[in-house]
Write a structure and sequence with these properties.
- The complex is a heterodimer of chains A (742) and B (173).
- Chain A is built from 21 helices and 19 strands.
- Chain A has 742 residues and is of the alpha+beta class.
- Chain A folds into 3 domains: 123 residues, PH-domain like (Roll); 319 residues, ABC transporter type 1, transmembrane domain (ABC transporter transmembrane region fold), CATH 1.20.1560.10; 135 residues, P-loop containing nucleotide triphosphate hydrolases (Rossmann fold), CATH 3.40.50.300.
- In chain A, a hairpin with a 2-residue loop joins β6 and β7.
- Chain B is α+β, with helices and mostly antiparallel strands and 173 residues long.
- Classes of the chains: A alpha+beta (742), B alpha+beta (173).
- Bound molecules: adenosine-5'-diphosphate and magnesium ion.
- Adenosine-5'-diphosphate binds next to α13 of chain A.
């Protein structure tokens, strides 16, 4: 297998004409833009000693550029706005090799990496490429979205139907019972027109009929049939009440579970609103499908077939007319419904926009009020509201203009059917009056199922949309997941080691560059650096919210990727910049990581975090409800609760990421004291802006622009008179200034 | 390695809003690189960044060298013609966005939308997800479409395009 792209035959033969054999080539890449704009493909090929670039000029003839790797001093990707370039430094000169759309950066970056590795004769690990298969294993086509490994072709409509039905099959006995009930009642509905029309008119009321004059009997018979129908539908209702909510519950849970298993990036890349929609609306759509659709499809199919059978057996000429006529009206309806769908979608879209504006404004209410912008927001809402109105008005106008017309057509059709039938009756054409009225009643019964199938396509596509969104969730594999042979460790000691760690959230924007350091267990390790330097990113990697791109992170000598995630996270307590309190009491929030903790422990932790004093002052003490809808706490108070949360967990590794940033100096000093006491036998990583917080740290690392620039004890770093020294000088100056001012 | 610490003078420079006037000179170094002579110093390479890329593509252009803003061009039109040409060339290079000339078909498949288009004279099939979010007007006339790979495409003067083409994506707007 050759990485990364398959070159066209023509390129291979061109290379071969220049004496470069296919076997030599280890890696390939493609760039899709001409140097100065416009689409034009050029190809890169890499052999262990040489980099080849094949370009086509405007006439289409190919040109080869050969660059010996020994001359390559550096090669990197420059991101432009929608495009990027591969740049190279060769013999001291910088130049552009090729240009491509941003979508190609991911692969080009790998290629670039291989160029440098081959040049420096470093070992290359391609094994990881295998598990990021970029093609669908079933059909072999590349996934349209490389980051979400789901294939729309193999997961197409039929795939969705199959899977929906397979969920349905879990309830097949209920389903079958429901079907049976509904079929029997359908069968019964076939009898009604016969009894109510043909039997009544021809045999009971007409002189010479088989049951002439037995009016009471026929009334009782009709009553009996009705009653039986009611009983049947009650039974059916009970059954469906039994099964439907169950399915709904299970489906919702399944979707939520699948979402919870995703890695953090799944949530940071998406609007939470759309995730909530999936759990609520989409599962509802599917639920409706199960409860109503499956049954209705079967019933209506059977009904149509049954009715046609009856009609043809009664009078085939009329039946033929009915069939032709129904087909014609169906076609007309289909056309209108198709046009109607457009309006429908448009108003759906408008609803969505209105919803997002509403939630935006409500969430930002504090800012709205602070800037006295209520009226602006009202008019923003009003204009979105107007758009929704326009869409709905257009939809209503359309449906009121066309549908009555179509209905009129249908009704006229039936009148003419009756007319033709009447002519047949009068001319003595093997048709009684009773049979005719029964016939028309049967023909009328066709309308319902036909309408059903007309609307069905719309319901159906809504259902396919919803279920495909749901299956996307169920199918997408979390990026971070336990290896099959992941190591299970109950208690970690807390020796952390970073070796040549490089990381980027987005390809081509490196955040951490070759960072290495060791944190022996039982020490306090401080990290300082400017905002955006990559401090929190280091924490994200240690806790394995993301995986490193290069290098490795190990704890107690085991790579974090080899540990079970649950074990890893249980052993690490984090107090992060973003403190989030869940809906619940203060005590619940402190207990989040250790629900079984006793109240004494909770209070002890709260005292250590200096949260106790303000919790006492809350109206309901530890039972005060916080989180959205509850009492609102200040930033510093929230931070103290989350510190208590981490302290209660008593993890071997405690991470404080600007945990005290929102506190006043006095509270911060007290918390430092508490942390100090916690240090025994624990590894503590503390990120802080205020260097005084890190006075007790055993080691301090300075991170600048994703690189480790200094590492040592406070004294060492001060003596070094480098970055840390300057930071320290600035802060002490600032503090003197503040104190003088006070 | 320690970066030069912030003197007040430096700080002033950083927060100052500096407009570049036509006394500074841009030179096209070729290969997409640009250099700028300002206060008798030559900076290279200089990146041009549109601060209002959609509404004012030719105004408020920030000139950046090694992550430091050297100044802001208020209006390209205020520069001499030759300089304008260099700036425009650089901008169009940096901000190149393929233009969709024709929409051949739009097909929905699951949560993906496949759009066959002619873009810059070439037939291409684009794939996007959730078209409602990924296609939008970025100003009053032009549409911006983002595909799954986060490539972006332009549809210029959408309302002036043939009705057939408008209809194909109308419902997503
Ligand atoms: N989820 C993310 N996706 C993309 N970029 C991110 C993400 N999180 C952080 N970044 C970027 O990474 C850089 C480092 O961020 P971070 O580690 O949070 O810095 P800090 O040192 O202030 O904690 C920043 O430029 C930030 O914009
Ligand atoms: Mg941070």
């Amino acid at each position: 297998m050759k990485y990364f792209v398959t070159l066209p035959e023509q390129i291979y033969s061109f290379l071969e004409n220049h004496g470069i054999s296919q076997q030599e080539i280890r890696y390939t890449a493609k760039a899709d833009l001409a140097p100065d704009g416009g689409f034009s493909d050029s190809y890169l090929a890499l052999s262990p000693q040489t980099l080849y670039l094949v370009t086509a000029d405007s006439s289409g003839s190919l040109k080869l550029k050969t660059i010996p790797l020994s001359e390559v001093e550096d090669i990197w990707i420059e991101r432009l706005v929608n495009t990027a370039r591969l740049l190279i430094k060769q013999n001291g000169r910088k130049r552009a090799l090729c240009r491509f759309a941003s979508g190609g950066i991911r692969i080009m970056d790998r290629f670039r990496d291989r160029v440098m590795k081959l040049k420096q004769q470093e070992p290359i690990d391609d094994s990881r490429l295998e598990d990021e298969e970029i093609r669908c294993p079933k059909c072999g086509l590349p996934y349209p979205d490389q980051r979400r490994k789901v294939c729309p072709k193999c997961n197409g409509r039929f795939g969705v139907v199959r899977r929906l039905l397979s969920i349905y099959m879990e309830y097949k006995w209920y389903g079958l019972a429901m079907l049976a009930g509904i079929l029997i009642s359908t069968g019964f509905s076939f009898v009604t027109p016969y009894v109510g029309n043909q039997l009544l008119l021809d045999e009971v009321l007409a002189a010479g009929g088989q049951f002439y004059g037995q009016v009471l009997w026929i009334v009782l018979l009709m009553l009996g049939i009705r009653l039986f129908g009611v009983v049947l539908s009650m039974a059916y209702g009970c059954l469906s009440a039994h099964i439907a909510p169950r399915m709904y519950r299970n489906l919702r849970l399944k979707v939520f579970e699948a979402m919870q298993r995703q890695s953090l990036d799944y949530f940071t890349n998406r609007q939470t609103g759309s995730l909530i929609t999936r759990i609520n609306d989409d599962t509802w759509t599917i639920y409706v499908f199960f409860v109503d659709m499956v049954q209705l499809v079967v019933v209506n199919t059977v009904t149509i077939a049954g009715l046609l059978g009856i009609l043809f057996s009664m009078q085939s000429l009329l039946a033929l007319l009915v069939t032709v006529f129904t087909l014609i009206t169906t076609m007309i309806m289909r056309y209108f419904i198709g046009r109607h769908r457009k309006y429908f979608k448009k108003s759906n879209n408008a609803v969505r926009k209105l919803r997002s504006i509403t939630s935006d404004v409500f969430n930002g209410q504090r800012v709205v009020k602070a800037f006295a912008k209520e009226n602006t927001e009202i008019s923003r809402f009003a204009s979105a509201n107007q758009r929704l109105f326009d869409a709905e008005f257009a939809q209503a106008k359309h449906s009121n203009r066309y549908f009555p017309f179509v209905r009129f057509l249908t009704k006229t059709g039936f009148s003419s059917l009756f007319f033709i039938g009447a002519v047949l009756v009068v001319s003595g054409y093997n048709l009684t009056l009773g049979a005719l009225t029964a016939f028309v009643a049967y023909a009328d019964m066709l309308q319902g199922p036909v309408d059903f199938f007309l609307n069905f396509s719309q319901w159906w596509s809504g259902c396919v949309d919803a279920s495909s969104r749901i299956f996307e969730v169920l199918d997408s594999k979390p990026k971070i997941h336990d290896r099959p042979n992941a190591k299970s460790v109950a208690l970690l000691k807390g020796d952390i080691s970073l070796k040549n760690v490089s990381f980027e959230y987005d390809v081509g924007r490196p955040i951490l560059k070759n960072v290495s350091f060791d944190i022996p267990h039982g020490t306090m390790f401080g990290i300082v650096g400017k905002t955006g330097a990559g401090k929190s990113t280091i924490i994200n990697l240690i806790t394995r919210m993301y995986d490193v791109n290069e290098g490795s992170i190990s704890i107690d000598g085991t790579d974090v990727r080899e540990l079970r995630n649950e074990d890893l996270r249980r052993n690490i307590g984090i107090v992060s910049q973003e403190t989030y309190l869940f809906i619940g009491t203060v005590a619940d929030n402190i207990r989040y990581g250790r629900p079984e903790a006793s109240m004494e422990d909770v209070i002890r932790a709260a005292k250590a975090a200096f949260a106790h004093e303000f919790i006492m002052k809350l109206p309901d003490g530890y039972q005060t409800r916080v989180g959205s809808g509850g009492v609102s706490l200040s930033g510093g108070e929230r931070q103290r609760i989350s510190i208590a949360r981490a302290m209660l967990q008593k993890p071997p590794i405690l991470i404080l990421d600007e945990a005290t940033a929102a506190m006043d100096t006095q509270t911060e000093r007290r918390i430092q004291y508490a942390i100090d006491r916690l240090k025994q036998g624990r590894t503590i990583i503390a990120i802080a802006h205020r260097l005084s917080t890190l006075r007790d740290a055993d080691f301090i690392a300075c991170i600048d622009d994703g690189m480790l620039v200094e590492l040592g004890t406070h004294e060492e770093l001060i003596r070094k008179k480098g970055v840390y020294f300057e930071l320290h000088r600035l802060q002490t100056e600032a503090f003197q200034f503040v104190e003088m001012g006070e | 390695m320690p970066k030069q610490m912030m003197t007040d003078d430096n700080m002033e420079k950083l927060i100052a809003y500096r407009e570049l006037d036509s006394s500074c000179v841009f030179v096209d170094d070729g290969d997409g690189f640009l250099s700028l002579t300002l206060d008798e110093t030559v900076y290279r390479p200089v990146d041009l960044i549109r601060l209002l890329p959609y509404d004012r593509p030719d105004e408020y252009i920030s000139c950046v060298c090694k992550e430091q803003e050297l100044g802001i061009i208020r209006r390209i039109a205020d520069f001499p013609e030759e300089q304008q040409r260099i700036l425009q060339h650089q901008l169009s290079f940096r901000y190149y966005t393929p233009v969709i000339e024709k929409i051949i078909s739009v097909r929905e498949k699951m949560w993906f939308v496949f759009i066959k288009v002619v873009v810059d004279g070439q037939k291409k099939e684009l794939c996007t997800r959730d078209l409602y979010h990924n296609i939008r007007f970025y100003n009053s006339t032009d549409l911006l479409l983002t595909d799954v790979d986060e490539n972006r495409y332009l549809i210029r003067n959408f309302r002036q395009q043939p009705a057939k083409m408008q209809q194909k994506i109308e419902i997503y707007l």
